[in-house]
Amino acid sequence: MKLVTAVIKPFKLDEVREALGEIGVTGLTVTEVKGFGRQKGHTELYRGAEYVVDFLPKVKIEAVIDDKQVDQAVDAIIKAARTGKIGDGKIFVRDVEQVIRIRTGETGPDAV
Length: 112
Ligand SMILES: Nc1ncnc2c1ncn2[C@@H]1O[C@H](COP(=O)(O)OP(=O)(O)OP(=O)(O)O)[C@@H](O)[C@H]1O
Ligand SMILES: [Mg+2]
What we know:
Helix content is about 20%, strand content about 35%. It has two helices and six strands. It is α+β, with helices and mostly antiparallel strands.
């Protein structure tokens, strides 16, 4: 199992959620976050130097996904979240050791 974390533009949340739903992703956690990438959010020129003036609002989506579906999920996120403009976001993929469904005690991929 992998944890797929995507930081995206907030207005793309619905499209990404739908795209993940279509490929059978069963659960998601969504958090409002702020961040910056290579352009360092809004930048401002002051005496010839660029200064960071803000973090930009983004939405972070976290989904634990069976290994077999990870590539499909990443593709779906890219397709739904991409505008082609700067700040479209990033996707991080990490290994997940264990998942436990609290109600039933199921573990591993059955609990996802
Ligand atoms: N290296 C990173 N580590 C953690 N979070 C990051 C990293 N890079 C980007 N992010 C998060 O993703 C958001 C969107 O990043 P963004 O798409 O601007 O990346 P970028 O590398 O600047 O690409 P682009 O040139 O397309 O804008 C940031 O606001 C930040 O929250
Ligand atoms: Mg950027």
